[in-house]
Specification:
Length: 316
């Protein structure tokens, strides 16, 4: 994935945060006004979802820095601390929500379900479903794991929101017919959502622990890249080639030797051809960094008596 892909990924994830923030505020305000535990729980889950998406943005930025070949010193601790903070926030939200619902159950707090409550939940369901479809479609286009993973989490949010919607609809029906049995379905729905949030936090722990790090490919695995580079006109020798694997993507860093008679511009054109060819031939190659050196005829290469005039040039 190139820089443009990373930018699209971040923009889409930020848009998801915006949607979840609006939903959390809307459901939270209405939930506290009507004393609905399930609606407050749905708002809390949207808040926990914000933490999950923010953690995903951190992972995307870390991958972007790694693929850019930048130094990671001083970066890992910051990312680890931020991920831990998000996990703690999610678990605290789930625990606090559980405490609130249990207190409501003990104190036998009841509420009157209204059309507004039901309308807010339906709007939330539609918004989350639209966000799920958007992230899934864009994730398949870009091949981004963060999109696919977050889309799956949004599907889990939809399921919990559906539980809350059913509980509110049930409460409205029981109030309409005057049936008081099972009047605490709303509170139990809040407990179910609290469990969903707890599961979300623990899954984020697993995701953080299993975050893939850079893996250097073995010489045999990088041999194909060397062969592809040596076929490009203007390249005399591949002095060094390192390929690092970051998840599903590969970053290549190499040093090549070219005809010493080539100008700086011509050497740059050779490196440009190499980069284009590798990224075209190997779709999982995201970045190629090339160091161009003039070929030293005194270094043993094939035949030691190769004349400079016989060296390949991009000009002929």
């Amino acid at each position: 994935m190139n820089d443009e892909g990373f930018r699209k990924t971040e923009y889409a994830l930020w848009s998801a945060i915006l949607v979840l923030t609006v939903l959390a505020c809307l459901m939270g305000i209405v939930g506290f006004q009507v004393h609905s535990n399930s609606l407050v729980a749905a708002a809390a889950q949207s808040g926990a979802g914000i933490c999950v998406v923010a953690a995903a943005i951190n992972r995307v930025r870390m991958m972007r820095v790694q693929l850019a070949g930048a130094s990671l010193r001083g970066l890992d601790p910051q990312i680890s601390v931020s991920s831990i903070l998000f996990i703690v926030l999610i678990l605290l939200i789930g625990a606090e929500l559980g405490v609130i619902t249990v207190k409501s159950l003990i104190n036998q707090v009841e509420y009157d379900a209204t059309i507004m409550t039901f309308a807010v939940l339906v709007f939330s369901l539609l918004a989350k479903e639209a966000m799920f479809q958007f992230l899934s479609k864009l994730g398949k286009q870009l091949g981004t794991e963060e999109f696919i993973a977050n889309a799956r989490r949004r599907r889990s949010d939809i399921y919990s929101s559906f539980v809350v919607t059913v509980s509110v609809l049930y409460t409205m029906l029981t109030q309409a017919i005057g049936f008081t049995a099972f009047s605490y379905v709303d509170t139990f729905a809040g407990l179910i959502v609290a469990l969903f949030i707890g599961k979300m936090g623990f899954s984020l722990v697993s995701k953080t622990i299993s975050t893939p790090t850079a893996k250097v490919l073995h010489q045999e695995e990088a041999a194909d890249f060397v062969k592809a580079v040596q076929k490009i006109h203007g390249v005399i020798m591949v002095d060094d080639l390192n390929a690092r694997e970051h998840g599903h993507y590969v970053v290549i860093d190499m040093t090549i030797s070219v005809n010493p008679r080539l100008s700086v511009w011509e050497g740059h054109e050779v490196s440009k051809k190499i980069k284009q060819q590798l990224m075209k031939q190997y779709h999982h190659v995201s970045h190629v960094y090339i160091h161009v050196n003039p070929y030293d005829a005194g270094y043993p290469y094939k035949q030691a008596d190769v004349e400079a005039s016989e060296l390949p040039s991009v000009l002929h």
